[in-house]
Records
---
Amino acid sequence: MDAPTKQRGLAPRIFRGFAILVMLVVLGIAALLFSLWVEHRSAITLPAPTGAFAVGRAIYDWTDDANVDALAPVAGTKRELLVWIWYPAAAGQSAATDEYLPAPLREEVERDLGAVLGGLLTRDLSKVHPHGIRNADVSPQQRSYPVVIMRAGASSEVWNYSTLAEDLASHGYVVVGFDAPYRTSVVVFPDGRVMRRTPENNAELCEGQEQAQRERCVNRVLTAWIADIGFVLDRLEGLNTSDPLGKFKARLDMTRVGVFGHSLGGATALQFCHDDSRCKAGIDLDGQPFGSVIQEGLHQPFMFVLSDHTREADAETHQIKANIQSIYNHLPPYGRLQIAIRGANHFPHALRPNDEALARRFTRMAKDGNVIATRSHTAPFSTTWLDAADEVGMCVSYEGTWPWLMLQGDPPDQNLLQIWKEEFASLIRKHRNHPAVICWTVNNEMKFEAIDRKNPERLRKKWTILSDMVKTIRSIDSTRPVVCDSSYCRQEVAAEYENLIRPSGFDDGDIDDSHRYYGWYDPSFFHFFQGEFGKKSSWPNRPLISQEMATGYPRNDDGHPARFYLFKHYTPQSLVGDEAYENRDPAIFLTRQAFMTKELAEVIRRTNRDTCAGIFHFAYLTWFRDVWSAKKIQPFETYYALKKALQPVLVSAELYGRHFYAGEQIRRRVCIVNDSESGNALSSCRLIWELRTGADELARGELFVPEVPYYSNRWIDLSIDMPATLPRPRVDGSLSIKLVKNDVPVSNHKLGVGSSPGRTISFRAASSSLS
């Protein structure tokens, strides 16, 4: 066949193939559009409220005759708000649930969305079903209910937060949200008036401006929202006094008012609580602070809930975080909480308390990593996590709520203390039948025992409160020991114990718990080769543990050091200098942190047999990537390093330095630790050691090891004769040590694997210099 004939045959085939491709694309688009249409027209019900109350909903149009709306386009316009109220409703009412949105409002929202977005790419709002019952009677179960003001983000409408409002109402709160003309995207009043946000009131347009100009732009809108909250509270107080319909008369507890908001709504809540004492507590959901609260702080209990900003390293983000931290630092210690999603300590039970798959997988990974005990740090284990601990065989120190309670200043209000006491007592009653729980720990790091030494009256008050809690725990469960405060050591307050605690009959629990940060804040493991940890912290005939033996906190996303410590305390820099920063390889920090953790664990096991009952290495959950996902979780290097250090039978070398010189005789000690899971003595065996550089063996030997009783240590003197010559003036290598019985390895240990900082042993030619 000639070339022209081939070309004539090829062209039709190309055309047919292209036509088929076009047809497939058209069919695919049609199928996609059809599926979007079906999805658009499908009915959906909002997530069910989790509380015990039914939910009612009422909508009001409130006008402030005394004040004008400063942001209205026409001067002199009175302030007017569309107010939505969700509240605990009387049970058994036959009325149907209300529409998600009133029809006039729904039509305007769909008009703004447009034909494509509103007709295909979003749900038909008429098919969305809430749980609130229109104008239902208020539940008679309580005389009155606390009030929560809810502010939406930026120009968002408050109905976008319906699920959250309904859930709060189901738990016994009256939730009040509102939209404002000219500042909310669209407001439709009951009489049919439609008012949209004006461009100059769009706070989102403030983004990208210079800092000072941006603050002026945002504060203009923020001031109006703050004034709106004050007006809403005024009207609620009037409604509580004389509601024309009688629904809310005397049903609102205006002495318990909370304010929360999202984004700019969070900033509004923060500044309002600063300005108005009617706010008794508040929450900022991922909102950047603005206003005078940044410099002046506030005094009410407040919580920050932040999304994951760990990958944002710009100067503006740094300043926002610094502002939040400044406000947080000035809040009363017993009335503050800061949560960054994807962050916690020890086990990830607080991240996903009801995730059975993660609970089982993480607990099993910990057990496989030779961890046999943990603590429920600052957030108690849920039933899901305790069930996993029971199943796997993980011991749990069950720690109470309200960490850092009574840390500074006078004790909290007696009502708050009673809530704290009842809350922890209820948890103990709920979980005391779980075999995994081995002890109860009252709180995390109250530390007043030492902080208030110079204020005897305050110290006595706080010990009275703490002792009462310990005795309450004993009355509920007399079978388990108690840690009175996670960080309390009797030895560290010996004078106070002899002069106050013991003579007053205060109960300081059964176990001492010393929090230490060796190599992180405190001196490294090299300072504890002679058992200094136990010698300084233990009390005769009283168990000593550490539920917080910390060596650093990598981020679960990427392994870089936690930013709080990187930029506030500079602790990661003490390990690896500038390699700690986020433009460097996180493997460098992870390698050094793994080395410090492993060596510290070994030092304590070698030297504290008689003075220490156990160590919880901290923070265990930070030593995993993607710790929130049962499918994706992967250990960092520290997990494997600690697994080696926690072998039930451990062979560990006491190395003060990592530089060996040619021709010298090196004398070191090796410790065999027998914590065998069988509970049996380790019968006599051989210790085999080997020095290597790459594939080359430099020296080798073996020693006889006598029997090591169970729960004891045995020291063996090791003498290594270095060869007179080396392949090069300096070589890197490793020292391997293993126990062998009947040619079967019992335990092994390798020091200096690889060439990363802190892990390599250097072998050098003979020299008079020191390294």
Note: The chain has a mean pLDDT of 86.
---
Amino acid sequence: MGMQKASPRTVAVPPPRARDRLGIVFALGVIAFAIMIVGLRSYEILDYRREEIRQSEAEVVSLVDVLERYVSQATTLLNYHTNPVVNAVRQSSGLDDPKLAWDRLLRAGTDALILDLDVLDPKGNVVRSSNPRLLGGIYKDQALLSRSAVTDGTIYGNPSFCSDCPNPYVVNSARRLRNSEGQTVGVLVLRTNPANLQRLAGTLGSSFGGNGRILTENGTVLVNEPQGTTGGTTPADDGLLPIDRLDKSGRTVVLPWDHNPDSLVAYKFLPGHGLFAMFARSKSAILADWQGALRQSIYSSIVILIVCGGGAGAFMRMLLLRARAEERVSSRSAELESIQSSARISGLRWYPEYDNLVPTTGTLDVLGLRRGGGSYKVKDLIANFANEEAQALWDALRDCAATGAEHRIELTVKKGPGQLSSPTYAFTTFRHEGSSPGKPQSGHHVFVVCQDITEWQETRTQHAHLLKMDAVGQITGGVAHDFNNLLVIILGNIEAISEEFPEDDPRHALLEVTLGAALQARQLTTRLLAFARKQPLQPTSVDVTALVENMRSLLKRTIGEHVVLAFDQEPGMRPWNVKADRSQLEFAILNLVINARDALGPGGNITIRVRNRVVDSAGLVGQDDLEPGEYVDIMVEDNGSGMSEEVASRAIEPYFTTKAPGAGSGLGLSQVYGFVKQSGGHFRIHSEEGKGTLIHLYLPRARATDEAAVHYDHDGGFEFGHETILVVEDDEAVRAHIDRVLTILGYKVLSRIDGPSALKLVEEGVAFDLLLTDVMLPGGLSGVQIAQKVKQMRPGMPVLYVSGYAKDMIDAAGRTTADIHFLQKPFLRGELGRKVKTALESSEVGLEVGRGPRNLF
């Protein structure tokens, strides 16, 4: 008996009853019946629409025929007026026959319809005209003359503008003139008033809700009504009538319904006149009746669906309401868990009375708490952190439990064996003043929100690194830029003074040493600008062997005497030159050697090898989009500690470093990698722990057409000239030096300190042949902006930019824009002369346009 009493509470929830299932089936049947009725009504409406379209297609065809008949009638009328002229010429020997009474013939042929008559010889010259002002001119529409010279019919051409006519545009047509022997001796050109054709097309367009057009064969509009436009040209992609894709067989063509979103179009080519007759009827007018029927059908369908489906839907909604509520609760729970997982948020409840720690779902895996199914203590949580951090978390928990104060602390988990990094968490504590779910007698407790902020912490650290490196770059670039201005004066004065002493004078030798030191200072500023990323990439043909040899002393001083540096070159094989930026390649090799030194212990070996490589489909093709071709492989190898596979895979990531804090920025290899990829090459790392590291730089081989690296010569080779140069430079000493060098080279110099004063000189009309400007200037205008304004006022003016660095002139790939002339500060006199000569020789030459015959039409 006891079991029978307990059974109602243990039995499972019964399935939906049979009548509920029948109710759902009935409701679905009612909805299906309503949909069937609506479907049948929709089919009738669609069939009605098709019939309306068929009737409209027949109407536009008829309207095109009406336009064709009117064109034929208008042509017959024109022929009637011009037949006396045509017949008179046919009975004569030619246009110069004295028997022809041209004044009478031309005057008789003009009336309100024909405004002017012109007689042209075969070359298009106007020899007779009812308008004396046009005599001696050349007819512009040669296509009309060519077509009319091969047929006896009236051919229509492009309209022309008429300032003293009733209609601003007149229609031009032409008839062939033949003499008594049947030879073509000229063309009779008629200029007629299109008002009658416009009135007809406008009447048809207004009556049938459309647009009538008459166009020439090349798309020029003769009549366009009711818009009232004449003389424009129909573009090839015209929405109504695409001229370049029309049928010229002479049959009436109706374009597909979907051809134009607004109109139904029909057209016909009139080969005897060289014209298109077209009529476009508005789709809204065509479908007006159908749209009324459609609205009525929609209203009736809505009523049917509301009546039949409303009750069924309400019935089904009542049956499914509980299921939907359960689904909503389940979905929101899953959503909350997904949000917590994505945000890497978990939680714990700590009951201080029992020191009981209850984690939420996922917290065990996040915080590394052991799974055992039992309760956890605070010591199980704080054991994951260092002593000081663990004490801070314990103090925050106790204070929150005692006073209710909220705390937020960030803690980093202790590193395990072999771990490179460990996660960081943010803990926020709150005191809950009630019972927790499932524990009505639990009392107050502390709720701890735990969020994994490892990625955010790394991003914040990287951002701080970026700000630091950007500040260093700004300072370095600014110092190098200012020092470049000083070097301009130093180099210029050394060159000038050295000419005062003969080569056998000991003082000349001292100046040579000083010049060499200044050139080394120039290389130093170039490297500083490259580090600051304010130096444009200037790929040249670089001899890698010579470059490494020149760097040998620098590299040895950098790595110290305890490291052995070797340069290994394959016997009997001369490495090719590479196409790369010389200063950036030096920086890359120096960076790799420094990294290799840091990986060595108290002693060790670093070897630099250079080999030629031919890459085909069996080589590196497919890796990082490397194309087949010829490359130079620059290898830097050390026998140091090496890297694990995981570390090597991340070595080129920006800010990734295994060095101690402050010992490295983590940007070295990423900068080298970016330079190599930017130069069209490939970067590879081979490393094993305890055996060392080998890094490959694959750079493309330089071709014979590639410009060789600049060698600094100061022993002559100056380029002289005589042109006038406008110099814009804000530094007074640099400006004076440039003026003096250009004057020595034979140029005339106009100097200005900033953009406004230079532009004022241009506006005053002062002539000059070249603009030489610094890029960074005071006065609110940079050198690039000055050049743009000068070229607007004087197109084709050559420009030579001169700057310590030219950040504004570097494109997204880091290279100087190809179509500009640029001279890097500091420079020698010979370099300045050659750049000026090159810029002058590239200036655009204007073409003088001669005067031709008068254009009368």
Note: Residues 1-16, 709-716, 807-815, 844-857 have pLDDT under 50 and may be disordered.
---
Amino acid sequence: MRRIPVVTIAALCCRIAIGADWLTDGGDVKRDAWARDEKIFSTSNAKDIKLLWKLHLDNEPRQMHNLFPPLVIDRLETKNGIRQVAIETGVSDNIYAIDVEKGEVIWKKHFQSTWTPPANGGRGGGILCPGGITATPVVAPAGTPGKYTIYAASWDGMLHQLDASNGEDVKPPAKFMPPNGKPYALNLFKDVIYTHTAQGCGGNPNMVYSYDLATNKVGTWGPAGGGMWGRTGPAISSSGVMYTGTGDGRWDPANGTYGDGIIGVQQNPTTKSLDLVDYYGPSNAEWLVKRDLDMQVTPVIFDYKGKELMVDAGKECRLYLMDTESIGGDDHRTPLYRSPLLCNEDVNFASAGIWGSLASWVDAKGTRWVLTPIWGKPHSQFHAPIEHGEVINGAIVAFKVEESGGKYTLEPAWMSRDMNRAEPPIIANGVIFAYGNGEDTDQAYPDVGLDDVAERRIPGSTHAVLYALDAQTGKELWNSGDQIKSWNHWSGISLANGRVYIGTFDGNLYCFGIKK
């Protein structure tokens, strides 16, 4: 098979993933969650969205995890011809290929682990360390039209390269990271796979990992502080810098610790190692670590007026707007703009704040928008020009990026209706898709204190509701009502070609769309 150049692979992955295909979590390497080429969904037909199919998969849940956001290949060459296929990942080391026209499984791959967990689970048990595959894979064209390769990291830390048409190995599995390290969604940039880990699972340090596909070399770097648990994995700038927020830990760069901040790491072109190239620490970093307000959100990167900008957030519930040329300025503490608190007035570490990832898009007038989910009530001092009723459990909040005299701001535009733990949105042809996950997110209780266990939270969870909103105003256009029977934890939605997908804890994958 002819090998296409490295740069071409990366360019194709980035371009196709935000169009007819959805090849990486968050849509593209910058994690903007914008389906630029979507033409089927619209504000006029969103009211006609129907459940097209529901498919039960035999993946066994682990703790509160089950299915991850599917990836979608528009035109995959299979033994039965060209098919549009969703690549679905289950936490118990399973990968499924699904014909999205029929809602049927084409093939299933189960990774046989090369590692045996210790009898006591080590730092591998409990709700934070479920075990299994925890990173959404990434898909890339394989050099011939209709051919694609799936890159997936299994529980034992091996990197697998699979033929998307049949699930067979393209190359033998290779060592990527220690077993049970809890990596997050993979990203692919210029023939290099990136991810990061959190929670010290398996007793492993929290690290950034890279795998160079051309040389098979692994690069690592660690913040020596909190874990990196942005749900959609790292975002990567046009210059190849991988950005992510960090969790609980001291902010002390002089001594090599970077907890509760944002770090930028880049591969050394010669050695293939990873080097820290930029970092930002909030001015109140000490307060954040004391109150368990991690900077645990996947950032979004985008172009604006000749600059490449980035927005990130955390559980404190404020947004940070940064220039990727220097995300914290000369002192590493000064972003372009720091928003007021949007929510979390009560400083809740578990059921309020901003969680997951962000999104961004540009409308027909050239206005740059940024979207964030929030959990819990809005802050009493925060208001948007357009609001859609009282928000108790969460919402989507939209901002416009504005610049005047070299000063940058994020101006509130609208706040959606109430959603039960609003999750990261996707933008498609003037329609915002988002959902309330229905999860019981409490971790501390008056009778027992901190008791973050699945056995307590699963019975308290209800069901997810998917929403379609007008992207200009936040007005509700449609919702799924009670059609989704279960909830999900630490997952997301995907969208391509007039279909939007959501998986739930009970092992069902739902596909909603416009009936033809």
Note: The two ends are 37 Å apart (CA to CA).
---
Amino acid sequence: MSNGPLLRVDPPADWRRWVVYQVYPRSFADSDADGVGDLRGVLGRLDYLERLGVDVVWLSPVYRSPMDDNGYDISDYTDIDPLFGTLADLDELIAQLHARGMRLMMDLVVNHTSDEHPWFTQSRASRDTPQRDWYWWRDPRPGATPGTPGAEPTNWESHFSGPTWTWDERTGQYYLHIFSAKQPDLNWENPEVRQAVYAIMRWWLDRGVDGFRMDVINMISKDTSLPDTEPRPGSPYGPGDQHFSVGPRNHEFLLQMHREVFDGRPDHVLTVGEMPLVTIPQAVQFTAPDRHELDMVFQFEHVRLDQGAHKYDLLPVTLPDLKRSMAAWQAGLAGQGWNSLYFGNHDQPRSVSRFGDDGAYRVTSAKALATILHLHQGTPYVYQGDELGMANAPLTAIGDYRDIQALRFYAEAAERGDVDLAALLLAMARMSRDQGRTPVQWDASANAGFSAGTPWIAVNPDHVHVNAAAQVGQPGSVFEHYRRLIALRHADPVVTDGAFELLLPEHPAIWAFLRRGRDAELLVAANFSADPVSAALPLDTGWADAEIVLASDPDRSPRHLPELALAPWESVIWRRAV
């Protein structure tokens, strides 16, 4: 077995071999004791990120913002909110990352702005302002009383509950917002809007930023006829996503963005499109190298398998369901496009609580999830704390929550009076975005070493034994397992380039697959259950002497393939030359 040190010497030049680490700044590290993480907190933890071995740091929004949606409502795209620091802090972060061979990817939120952005304040000043058409303004439905339910121009439902239209008394029209009323949607049909966005992007790239994660970038093109949708039972509103998800000019806008922002730059600019409801054929178009739109997409199929009519309508998901979804994207994008690999991020609960076992097998199941994810083809994303096996926190009352999406959903349900609120709270505790936003657990001290003040959201009480101080440099820890997975991706081109073949697709507990390269092959297998499992793999006899390159149990004794035997939540990677 080769479980000795795998150290990164030089960062890989091929962007497809990079690993991205997402920092949600308000929950990462607080340097000034105000209870909110900030840029100087990130700067203080760069040695940690360098030791982990990641190539890119994705920074969730730190721009000026009223913080209606924790910074995803931007009031100034070219300044830093004082909550997080200053432009000088951001410049220092770029310089320090570059000195360590890492890169910075900024969150780009340009489907919408804050309603406090000067563009919108000008737009809503009057119907005659030159910037009126920078946003979506429409008259009420003919014959309806403005400002009353059903009078909206369309019956689309907001992703944050309620209608997607808000009545503006001053100018006598509604404005569109797919999310919060404080997040009005930009009108990308207006070429001035597009040029303003491109100018912002160039400004950040000239400052040293290395790429953009583009928030809901498949919603920037709407069906301009604004048709109604099918309402939900008992509601005047329904999901209108089919009218603004991958709209008619989406590809055109991204092609133009590439030409005007990225073409001609000496270094590769990493571009990632967050795209709810995107299909595999659409993702191929968005990421095909010869089309020059995006490097990769964030798709949502695998993280919506356990949701019904809404995110708190929980459905059972079997391992074959999850394998089938992931494998379909492997096959669909193979040789044509590129995918982002993730189980958790700032919009998801903790992956070990959702897909693993956060009880007795927290450590081994966290390793199993990481092993499976990082050995698929695509770019792996490590969400802060996942490398420690952080789990969902005990959120039990509505007062424990901070997320606008959860709070609005609960308030609306309480007002209707047709929902079991106790059951809703249980579902929220499993699926709320706040579960991924509790502070990073640095040590066992008060507030987990995150802040000397009162954290903006409570720290998970399990930080006394789940924390970075207890894991960094500790053989067998979740952190060190992640570190070795990242090093393996850097060292072995099969991880990036090898073809994917799913094995035992219907097995209820074993997730196994092959990665086939020109000179070598990898076999990856994990047990997604709390019971020992065994199975005969459909492999040739040449696998009998394969080398174990990484195992969740460093003391695992070699066993001859193709007979597979795995302990509870155990994961193993084998390699053979061909």
Note: The CA atoms of residues 260 and 457 lie 41 Å apart.
